Fold these 4 entries.
Entry 1:
Amino acid sequence: MSEQTTERRRKVLRALGILAAAGVVGVVALWIAIHQYPPLATFLVDGVRAVVGPKPIAVAEDIAYGIQDRINRWRYKDAPPTTYWEVAPGPSASGALPAPSSSGSGVWAAGFAPAPFPPPYPGVATPGDGTWIPVATPQDPGAPPVMFKALVHPDPKRSFAVVAVVAIDLTRVDMHSAPGFGEPKSSAMTRAQRPGLIPEEHYLGLLAAFNGGFQAQHGQWGMMVGGVTLLPPRPIGCTVARYKDGSMRVAVWKRIADTEPEMAYYRQTPPCLIEDGKINPAAQLEKNTGWGATVDGDTIIRRSGFGLDESGKIGFYVMGDALSAGTLAKALHVAGAKDAAQLDVNFAYPRFFFFDGNQTTPPRITQPLAPLPNWKPDEYVTRPEFRDFFYLTRKPPAP
């Protein structure tokens, strides 16, 4: 072999080594950005994706989340279950309600108390799993709660896979949908028509806000709000729909397409996780690619979802860490959802915030449902959101 050939080979190997090192640094940087600076992560990922295409980003995400999962399975092998909050089980936390109270605007109806549920896998559960904790209504703290929260650990192989569930009394709470100022990407609305903010007329009753669905480029899942179709519905899309009479449905589009004229809004997601009380068999396989997996389908990430109970009067929002589509579905199912959809995924995007109910100044966020770094108290109100979202307002008390 000539000296020239040997030198050329050294240069090639050196270049490959530099590229490999850069790739490792890039994966680490992406992981840090995702977990510490979600807005920066969104900017970096979308910017790089626009230049190099989706496949390299998918590979980087696979590597980063795969490494994280392997580390966590080793790190938490003998550790107690991860939890977002501590709660002791017992009647006082599992659905007991304060007496109805009178206020200047009327009397709240009593009786909303979601049923406690047994942990699906006691070996990875905390003592408080399945125990509902009342969430005070900020506008009237003495009134019967319109929301409860609970924890569940839905993965027998991962004690660090934890899900927070919020049960919502839809007879006393309105669930609204709003596009972000950039997503889902569509020419059907101008920037002025989609400010990415909660309207001022909803400040007084504002309770909470949470994430919507995927970006348009990830499936082109449909969305309509205010009579404007941003993206047309897909027949296989699981659809969160609110009707003009205030009722709600979660169902695959082809089952409810004929009711579209009666809808106030709809937002689609990948195929339903739960239909008619049964978990989608495909979602129970970790190696699936239908619910936001990246390359090999084995992505364990933060995920979120929304479901309805059999009556359609209780909504369940869920979000949690170290989840597959199947374990997300399991959490929704045990909590009481009869029909359910996955919403957005990845660490930066699933987010649920409680508001303070301030009635004299723009309301502000008091706390997130689950840990999330670098959030701002004025998000959704004076700080515009790039991606679509849902928000909850208290209905006026019955006279």
Note: The helical segments are 3-36, 38-52, 54-75, 253-256, 325-335.
Entry 2:
Amino acid sequence: MDFKISSNRVQKIFNKSKDNYIAVVGDVMLDKYVYGYVSRISPEAPVQIVDVKSTDYKLGGAANVANNVKTLGSEPILIGIVGDDMEGDIYLDTMKKQSLNTDGIFKDESRPTTSKTRVIAHSQHILRIDSEVKHYINGKLEDTILKFIKTNLENFESVILQDYNKGILSKEMIHKIISFCRGAKKPIFVDPKFDNFFEYKNVMVFKPNRKEMQDALGARIDGDDLAIELGKKLMKLINCEWLIITRGEKGMMMFDREKTGVVVHNIPTKAIRVADVSGAGDTVISTLAVAVSGGADIKEAIIIANHAAGLVCEEVGIVPIYKKNLIEAFKK
């Protein structure tokens, strides 16, 4: 894509998006990091004994998108569920410490808080323990969430649907949220997973990564020609306005529905040195929503999001994108 945007224009977009409310609906998770050291083997079984030095909690899943919205200067309203348990309380406390609004987080007594515990010893990740159930939430809780969305929709500049297949975004929930948003003319940005992949019809932006698209369409994407063929097929199936495929170190591919037909733009990564692509998809979807809420057109938004993804891919681990750093990137 041969498209330029000045740092002054980027600054203007972020000035306008400042404090805009953006809803993030999806599966929230608690990431627990247990740090320690190993000096012996258990006499009970041939396993390592980890002496714990410290424990750290981070917000994962859809909360990572909300955190990116926050660090870009807008105000995320995270909508999801936690269990009625200790981890759920920790989750809410962590949100409050990060100045994230907790009004859209509801407790489900029938399930545990989705959590992932990582044990780190001597800087090595030696074990991960997952606690989760994936069945869909009950009808009463679904109605509560839909009522919250409908009641507050007029205050949202846009809505992000962040799906991890953990039970909140059922077919019915997806269809109703999209119907609400289209009726209120609110842009919808979707980051899908395998289940219900084709239910997100008639949204503004649909953003799968390469693997998600391969899994959903049952075909291996081994080159640009096949990616373009499958992308056009997918765009027709779900009738989105724009399809954006994130491709890790290869950057992104955007499908734009124009009068003459679907136009495809290859967008190479802006990363100088790709260290870790983890979380880049979260960065892209959040930056797109924030930029559009600040008056950017889709081409401006995708260029800004590409720069944002490039910056986070130069870091190790999942890190948020900060507005100041992003604006500075356009001055170089």
Note: The chain has a mean pLDDT of 90.
Entry 3:
Amino acid sequence: MDYSNVPYSRKILLAFLVVSVTFMELLDTTIINTAIPPISKALNVDVLSLKAAVTVYLISLAIFIPISGWIAETFGTKRTIISAVLLFTVSSFLCGNSKTIEELIIFRIIQGVGAALMTPVSRLILIHIFRRDELLKVSSIVGIPIIFGPIVGPLLGGFITTNFEWYWIFYINVPIGIIVVILMSVFLKTLKQHEKVKFDFPGFVLFGLGLASVSFVFENEGNPVFKKHTLIILLITGLLILTIAVIYAVRKKNAVLDFSLFKYYTFRFGIIMIFLGYLSIGGLALIVNVLLQMVFGLNPFQSGLVTFTAAVSAVIIKPLIVKITTILGYKNLLKIYPFFIAIPIFLLSFINIGTSPFFVSALLFVFGFGMSVHINMINLLPYTQIPEIKVSHATSFVCTMLQFSMSLGISIGVFILDKNLLMYNIARLTTSSDKTDALASFSTTFIVLGILSVCLLFFNSFFKLRELSFVSEEIME
């Protein structure tokens, strides 16, 4: 069955239904940031140790996104996305029902598996629903839920944890998930499956083990349960496994991650941009929310109000990016926008006890401009030289790198903050910790993150970008 005879108006409604799962995934990625301090109090753990609940979700996404296409082709897109939403919904309930941090981490991993299948498969279904000439026209319409996910997340998370119990940030997914499953069961068509491609099980295992090992080391550095030499051995092992995985993927046809894409110049450039960008900014939202609640004493909703300005400015500038690119030129914009990321991060290091939350909010508003341009660049640049037959492979690679870089960025940011707190003899950050020493720890952390963000600035400025004349306004849109 196909959608060739379905009226366009009904296709639009189906598109909103399909994209709603992306909204759920993006909402769940951001909603937890403002809830970290209340959850840590409820589970009686250090606030910084809860970074694992954020990063394991992202790592789970990174590991399972590459096989989402194979699963959809093997079991059918309709069956896959309904099963993914069910898994996401059930695991959301289990997350909310967690009594220990270990339980929360396990259920967040399962939730990440569901999310890893939802978003890529939803995009695949959209391609089946609309003709090629309709896709561009509909992209701005169905992009609305995707834009508002990151905006609603901090505010909704803060509102729920301020006025209700923290577990409702997960329980809220349950009724939404049930409704989506029912509607998809009724209205989505069972599409004809393509010729099945053999699953690259060895590649999946190698990359999964490598990514999980490296991430585990960063998660547990400083954890007294694990000795330093044990973590060093695990890190070396993880890097060795990843090296073997890359060598294997280069030689393997239809590998789970297609490294032949690196022969395309702009793909290589885009992947490095993703890595450098999220290394410095991946953990910023979490760290700022911890600062506002644990040091400045704001409640989660107030904290969400301060930080959501970054998402608002990102939305404001998005429709203007094409015009700005036309005025400045693509290469010049690449050199300029990192300043909007680096400067606000550096200025955050000047905060003190008397600093107004409005100052923090203003800095994040400026930061949102740079972040929006960065996202637009990495959504565009890796694909500009990729032939159509390789686009799905490139998407899997980009999404995997994006999630892993975000996870690594969070781990590094919290690691730097944790080490700075120990320098000031703060073993566990609480609302009763010495405010002056705690602020000094955050200030030093922002300086280090600012230095990391400068790496992106230098890379974009000095790395020679050739063959960019084909990046037109139509592509930027």
Note: The longest helix spans residues 391-423.
Entry 4:
Amino acid sequence: METIARLSDRDLMLRAIELARKCTGKPNKISPKVGAVIARDGVIMGEAYRGELKTDEHGEFALIEKKLSGVTLAGATLLTTQEPCTSRNEPEAACALRIIERRIGKVFIGMLDPNPRRRGRGELQLRDAGIQIARFDFDLVPVVEELNRDFMRQYHRGVKRKRTAAETSDPVMPGQVGPNGYRIGYLENGDKVEWIPDDEAPGEEYSLLLRRNDKDIMDMYEELWEKVWWNRHQKWLGQIKLGEQQVSQPVLELAKEKAQQIEYKYGIENLSWDDVDWALLKGKMSSLAWVLGAEWDESLDT
């Protein structure tokens, strides 16, 4: 008998995020990257992403009304990277309404709608209909938000986050609380966190990351530099091909070996950036270099 693979909630979250990476939208329009998965007892029933079947079509709509139109979804679990919408232009019905109509039992949400006029409405509408609501794991939320950074910028322009002393100073003083008013401390790996009461598990807490530990900061710094080196290596190869650079064969072979190691480590698809991503990388490198006291030429501003 064939064994059916049953996935954990986290595995299903990661699958929804991978689907969101595939999203396409209309030219000259910034749309959210939304991936959606429906499962029952850990077994995937269907999956979709925004724009998969029709340009800019909502992922939840494509999944519920097209891919799984004839399938019983009552009691199933939906995992979607963004809060389902509560309003659509006629004659379309909102995704939240479709979820309620199909009697889905539980919905995991990766991030709330960044539009302040819609934020939280989808979650509340689902809750009011008796649907259980949960969030993606706390460490996956920044991944979803990073995927949607261009979409989020439309609503966050000019907004500057205020950080509390608990986030910006060490060590933690007795009785000190975080930005949400709860106790703060450190995980075993050195991450500084705020312990938030878990609404879904009374008496338990989950950790909200306030600042990464020193090792992870250094690891990220080194990872960014390896990716920068790889991109510069590609430019260098182009210059050699055009005869603009002269290099000995042993040096060239050594450089190619290093590039292959980086490609194997991160995946070649994760090593190239467009102009916007490169600008963001420069900002990250500058900030890390300043924090670490590195020389200015290590900040990528040169």
Note: The chain has ten helices and eight strands.
